[in-house]
Design a protein that fits this description.
With about 150 residues, the protein is mainly alpha-helical. It has 9 helices and no strands. The N and C termini lie far apart (about 65 Å).
């Protein structure tokens, strides 16, 4: 039997980045599983950042693009923080998302419900749904009271 050669960390990192963007912390977490004690991880990640192959800003932009039509800024910010994105980048992303928060919440609400709640129970259900999607209470109240720009 022929033995399959173990992939290097560099190869694993390139394959992961070829599939999709990763944050530095996320890629480090994935590679750490395969790293041996004599294989330093930080210089590899530094090299990838220097070459422009690894970028937290690009990762944040991609994640926001993929999630903004379904989720509110709070949920997206939480996900960015979980992936190890710097707080300054998360704040900048939040500023961008806040500008369209009401419109995005209205679109999510329209897709799921489309009609105003008939009673308090339905209203609470609709509000919980929007809150679970990461929209803030101020935005939710605007949608529920019909004071948005739709």
């Amino acid at each position: 039997m022929r033995r399959v050669a173990e992939k290097s960390l560099r190869t694993r990192a390139l394959e992961a980045l070829a599939r999709r963007e990763h944050s530095r912390a996320e890629l480090a977490r994935k590679l750490r599983e395969h790293a041996s004690d004599d294989e330093p991880l930080e210089p590899l990640l530094d090299d990838f950042q220097t070459r422009g192959w690894l970028s937290d800003a690009r990762f944040a932009e991609q994640l926001v693009h993929a999630r903004q039509s379904r989720y509110g800024s709070q949920k997206i910010a939480h996900e960015l923080r979980e992936q190890g994105v710097a707080e300054t980048l998360v704040s900048a992303t939040l500023d961008t998302l806040k500008a369209t928060e009401v419109e995005r919440a209205r679109a999510v609400w329209d897709k799921k419900f489309g009609t105003p709640a008939a009673d308090a129970k339905q209203r609470a259900q609709q509000m919980r749904f929007l809150q679970s999607r990461g929209f803030g209470l101020e935005v939710i109240y605007q949608i529920m009271n019909g004071r948005d720009a739709a």
